[in-house]
Design a protein that fits this description.
Shape: globular
CATH superfamily of the domain at 8-128 and 152-261: Ribonuclease Z/Hydroxyacylglutathione hydrolase-like
Number of helices: 11
CATH class of the domain at 8-128 and 152-261: Alpha Beta
Helix content: 40-55%
Order of helices and strands: EEEEHEHHEHHHEEEEEHEHHHEHE
Structural class: alpha/beta
Length: 341
């Protein structure tokens, strides 16, 4: 079991006290953060953890640390507003638990609103799209079934939750400036507080945030993500970025350039794999060549990551469909991609 880091306090140039609350989100020692904001209007919690494993316990323990270490007088029951940065379960899964403890208003970007208000519908639609994707990626039926079971497991404990207000791009609420940054998730927002950016999962300190094809979910895909990275680069004067995972980022702009370079390397890696293969390939074959050692749930993540980059290359004219007549004639055949000559 991972030893969590302590709660940390940061101060923005706009006078907002930002408290970073560490949470163990899943049993595999996957750690993330919620943020308590004091001085940005009503007492605000940004993200709520996964609601699974130790996440709820860690959230309450974080508020206890605030009282013990920082002499902060508020507790979880005093939260008046919850902002969900994006519709991934490790950020909103604990929302029901939080709302049992306090009477807070809930806000999220409208592109992710349905994840909260119509969760069952969203899962059904996403699962259907994922099944189509698996077929087009050339994934054999037995593996498809295993991937579906892994995909659905973490979603069984979540129920629909009302949303009180929508978050819009460039909206300012109580000094919090919201920046819509789709790509990793359709409704992903970053929150600027003076010289501090809560970057959620848009920019992380060590890893390049996971990408999934837009063919599965609108407003995702590498093109949207690249546009959103360029968008954040235009915001000057950000001294510190705090992500939904990993370490504080003291050079946001350098980190964005490093993430862009990482994706360019992945795109070139796919082209190299296809040149070495010398024959058309499915996304499933490309994924196995890129990530030969992955197991379990990481097989699904690898398929989505590879697929997002293949989709980008196809959209930008670097790839072509080699079995176009089969694609035209059959309901949903596996697509064979070839380098465009």
């Amino acid at each position: 079991m991972a030893l969590l880091p302590p709660v940390e306090h940061f101060q923005s140039s706009s006078g907002v006290a930002i408290y970073r609350l560490p949470l163990q989100l899943f049993p595999n020692d996957f750690t993330g953060y919620a943020y308590a904001l004091e001085g940005a209007g009503p007492l605000t919690l940004v993200d709520a953890g996964s609601g699974m494993w130790r996440s709820n316990h860690d959230l309450e323990a974080g508020f206890q640390q605030l009282r013990d270490r920082f002499d902060v007088r508020f507790q979880l029951a005093d939260i008046e507003r919850v902002i969900i940065t994006h519709g991934h379960i490790d950020h909103f899964g604990g929302l029901a638990f939080v709302l049992e403890k306090c009477r807070a208003q809930v806000g999220i970007h409208e592109l992710d609103k349905r994840v909260l208000t119509d969760y069952e519908e969203r899962v059904i639609v996403a699962t259907k799209a994922l099944g189509i994707y698996f077929e087009r990626a050339g994934i054999e039926p037995a593996l498809r079934q295993d991937l579906f079971e892994m995909y659905g497991f973490a979603k069984q404990h979540v129920s629909a939750i009302d949303v009180d207000f929508n978050i819009e791009d460039e909206q300012v609420i109580d000094g919090m400036e919201f920046i819509h940054t789709p790509g990793h998730c359709p409704g992903q927002v970053c929150i600027r507080l003076g010289d501090v950016l809560l970057s959620a999962d848009h920019v992380l300190s060590r890893t390049t945030p996971h990408q999934s094809p837009e063919s599965i979910t609108h407003y995702m895909g590498l093109d949207h993500y690249a546009d959103s990275l360029r968008k954040v680069l235009k915001y000057s004067g950000i001294r510190l970025a705090l992500g939904g995972h990993e370490d504080p980022i003291h050079d946001l702009y350098g980190r964005i350039h490093a993430i862009r370079a990482s994706h360019n390397r992945k795109l070139e890696r796919i082209r190299l794999i296809m040149r070495q293969q010398g024959a058309p390939m499915t996304i499933g074959e490309i994924s196995r060549a890129m990530y030969p050692d992955v197991q379990g749930y990481h097989i699904l993540l690898a398929l989505e990551e590879a697929g997002a980059h293949v989709e980008y290359l196809y959209q930008h004219g670097h790839l072509t469909i080699a079995n176009l007549k089969e694609f035209e004639a059959e309901p949903n055949p596996a697509i064979l991609y070839a380098l465009h000559k």
